[in-house]
Structure to design on (790 residues):
């Protein structure tokens, strides 16, 4: 339905002057109140070799003992361990997630070391993208797990970056805000440190690694950001133990030759890191992650899935039409698969049937064979029986004949004796 | 929508879902500096500026333009007096004007949409359609921007955040037109009803009118802003129930200043006195202004973004799918290409079969 709307074009936006106090200057405060009630999310990824001081630095940064056991050096591959904590400071609640790379740099073959890290980062983006693409979604409850900052721990060799570092950072620079730091900086002397830092920065630039640039477009933070950027990469020392210095307890590392104070700017750049990471640029890190890295991931993923914004005729495609097309395609494939499966099923059934028939035939044959054998046997037995009967008959006849003879003989014998007796008797008389 | 502006969870029907269980909070043992993030948020927001879009709806002559001028203390609109011989508009024509106002470093891009001709015809059937169409069009525009592959950093927000509905001061109750309109609109946008030209009612008449309107709203299940179901916690509820008791506010608009007791006040001068706009005893304009601007502006925007816009988006994305949808179908599975949730439709069919059987029995 065409709704006639009279609208001003954007260029003619008039700046009106107010003749009294309206009151919308409380808007930023309203916004902040909402944000406070919801809480903030911040996710840090620590990439570095085992034993380089990642967990200690996190403990020092956030002034909290996050429970963790030191990792062994025997890991077969790199895996990522994520732990979430909820911190509270005055009225600000922070959901902090620290992701550790366990086993980084420990393997003999480190070709694939960066892969689990990239996969983890992509998986978080993917989870957010899935939530965003859902039909019924709740992006406000969503616990954002996307990595906002990646602290890359450089080993304090004093020479230059390792090739593993370069390769890993190159793979990560388009996916996450990388802040390189030199770990265990108390092992490097001051003059060496300066050379080391410039070597690292020049190597990063010559290899085209894009690390996180502290924003300098706003007057309030431009100055501090500009001064701090000069000191990149920050050389940090982490410590959770406190040492008495003067009359105060301060976080420090105690050596026989002296005490390295963590929060002393002459000793290390820890304070600078804390300023930049938390107190000045936390929000900017989150915004960069969302507007730059996540959008890049989303764009690549959607293009990979086949969505376009405009088709060759330069008519804008709507996402729904592409959804429709994709879904019809998918349904078609489903049907085809179904057909295939059905046909395979039919074939299998036929095969089975043939097998069964074969078996049946065999059985029949066996049966016939058995029957015949049985009949033959039976006949044999019958023959034998007949023979036996004949023999028995013969025997009986012979027996009967013999008996007759015997009885005849007996009779004649009896007659003879009788005659004899009679003779005897006659002779007596 | 800027993700920096975290906001309370949305929900279109009942209570908000509980927050996810998090590990017990650790107290930092020293000052870390996390609260500096609040200042960072403030600086960023002030640099980007704010946007606010408001719509005024009501019959002609109720003082809409004057009210807008009074709210923002500037000549936004020249209130148009209908001249004789000009035919009334046949169709409702919405007019939008955008201004940038600044106060103490805070820049606000304000867009006011007027609806002249609303309810002025003899047959007012479906006179709310152009308005609803306009609101939907803004949502659509935002949605289109949001689903682009290459999106802008900051999507321009033209969605209507608040709609002020002017109820004519009849003193009786809501008219059928009002009820129809409010019912439809409350589902799509935050509506704040006000009693216009309240200087024609005495205080007792005002209270009675207000109570009757509240009763009407309850009878017809019209949820005006601040909606009860979006109260987050006990503080919100307390604050908002105080506001809800006074809705609709009885307001008077004026853009002329007069001298009263040596002070210069905004008001309407009549033969029987000067009605001071800022005086709580005379009218409730300060309440309206505080609600809209000083305390709940961000909340209005958040509810528009989290609730109304999301509802629109759900409907819009659902209707482009061809699969039969049973009642209460909700696609919770991700990814556009695998959205066919095959078990669900068959379950629904079973249910209907059973119910059919029951019916047959």
């Amino acid at each position: 339905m065409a709704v006639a709307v009279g609208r001003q074009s954007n260029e003619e936006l008039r700046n009106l002057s107010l003749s009294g106090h309206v009151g919308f200057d409380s808007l930023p405060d309203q916004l902040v109140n909402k944000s406070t009630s919801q809480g903030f999310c911040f996710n840090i990824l620590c990439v570095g070799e085992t034993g380089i001081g990642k967990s200690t630095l996190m403990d020092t940064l956030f002034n909290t003992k996050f429970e963790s056991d030191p990792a062994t050096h025997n890991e077969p591959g790199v895996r990522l361990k994520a732990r979430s904590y909820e911190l509270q400071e005055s009225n600000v609640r922070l959901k902090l997630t620290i992701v550790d790379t366990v086993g980084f740099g420990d393997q003999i073959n480190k070709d694939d070391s960066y892969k689990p890290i990239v996969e983890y980062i992509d998986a978080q983006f993917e989870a957010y993208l899935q939530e965003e693409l859902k039909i019924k979604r709740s992006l406000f409850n969503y616990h954002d797990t996307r990595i906002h900052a990646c602290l890359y721990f450089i080993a304090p060799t004093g020479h230059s970056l390792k090739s593993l570092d370069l390769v890993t950072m190159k793979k990560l620079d388009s996916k996450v805000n990388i802040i390189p730091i030199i770990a265990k900086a108390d092992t490097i002397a001051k003059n060496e440190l300066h050379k080391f830092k410039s070597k690292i920065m020049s190597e990063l630039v010559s290899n085209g690694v894009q690390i996180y640039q502290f924003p300098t477009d706003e007057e309030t933070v431009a100055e501090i950001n500009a001064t701090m950027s000069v000191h990149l990469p920050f050389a940090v020392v982490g410590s959770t133990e406190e040492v008495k210095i003067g009359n105060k307890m301060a976080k420090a590392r105690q050596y026989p030759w002296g005490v390295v104070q963590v929060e002393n700017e002459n000793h290390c750049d820890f304070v600078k890191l804390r300023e930049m990471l938390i107190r000045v640029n936390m929000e900017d890190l989150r915004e960069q992650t969302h507007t730059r890295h996540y959008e890049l991931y989303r764009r690549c993923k959607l293009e990979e899935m086949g969505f376009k914004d405009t088709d060759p005729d330069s008519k804008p495609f709507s996402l729904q039409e592409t959804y429709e097309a994709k879904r019809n395609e998918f349904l078609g494939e489903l049907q085809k698969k179904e057909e295939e499966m059905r046909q395979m099923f039919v074939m299998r059934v036929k095969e089975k049937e043939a097998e069964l028939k074969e078996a049946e035939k065999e059985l029949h044959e066996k049966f016939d064979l058995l029957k015949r054998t049985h009949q033959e046997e039976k006949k044999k037995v019958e023959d034998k029986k007949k023979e036996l009967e004949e023999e028995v008959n013969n025997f009986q006849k012979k027996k009967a004949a013999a008996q007759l003879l015997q009885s005849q003989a007996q009779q004649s014998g009896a007659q003879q004796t009788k005659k004899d007796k009679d003779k005897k008797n006659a002779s007596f008389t | 929508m800027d993700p920096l502006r975290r906001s309370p969870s949305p929900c279109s029907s009942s209570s908000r879902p509980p927050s996810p269980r998090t590990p017990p909070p650790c107290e930092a043992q020293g000052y870390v500096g996390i609260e500096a993030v609040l200042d960072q948020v403030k600086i960023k927001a002030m640099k980007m500026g704010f946007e606010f879009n408001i719509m005024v709806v009501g019959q002609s002559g109720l003082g809409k333009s004057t009210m807008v001028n009074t709210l923002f203390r500037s000549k936004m609109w020249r209130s148009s007096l209908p001249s004789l011989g000009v035919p009334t508009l046949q169709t409702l024509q919405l007019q939008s004007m955008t201004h940038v106002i600044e106060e103490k470093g805070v820049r606000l891009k304000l867009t006011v949409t007027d609806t002249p001709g609303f309810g002025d015809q003899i047959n007012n059937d479906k006179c709310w359609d152009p308005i609803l169409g306009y609101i939907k069009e803004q949502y659509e525009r935002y949605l289109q921007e949001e689903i682009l592959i290459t999106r802008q950093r900051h999507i321009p927000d033209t969605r209507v955040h608040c709609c002020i509905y002017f109820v004519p001061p009849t003193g009786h109750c809501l008219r059928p037109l009002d009820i129809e309109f409010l019912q439809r609109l409350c589902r799509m946008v935050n509506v704040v009803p006000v009693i216009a030209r309240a200087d024609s009612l005495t205080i007792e008449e005002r209270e009675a009118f207000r109570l009757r309107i509240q009763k009407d709203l309850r009878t017809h299940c019209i949820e005006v802003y601040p909606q009860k179901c979006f109260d987050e916690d006990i503080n919100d509820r307390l604050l908002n129930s105080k506001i809800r008791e006074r809705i609709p506010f009885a307001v008077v608009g004026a853009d002329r200043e007069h001298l009263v007791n040596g002070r210069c006040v905004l008001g309407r001068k009549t033969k029987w006195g000067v009605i001071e706009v800022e005086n709580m005893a005379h009218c409730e304009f300060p309440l309206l202004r505080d609600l809209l601007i000083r305390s709940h502006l961000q909340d209005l925007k958040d509810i528009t973004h989290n609730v109304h816009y999301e509802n629109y988006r759900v409907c819009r994305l659902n209707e482009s799918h061809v699969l039969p949808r049973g009642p209460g179908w909700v696609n919770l599975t991700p990814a556009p290409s695998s959205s066919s949730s095959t078990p669900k439709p068959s379950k629904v069919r079973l249910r209907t079969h059973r119910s059919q059987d029951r019916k047959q029995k």
Remarks:
- The first helix of chain B runs from residue 36 to 48.
- Chain B touches chain A through 105 residues (CB under 8 Å).
- The longest strand of chain B covers residues 94-103.
- Residues 39-79+88-254+282-320 of chain B form a domain with the Rossmann fold fold (CATH 3.40.50.300).
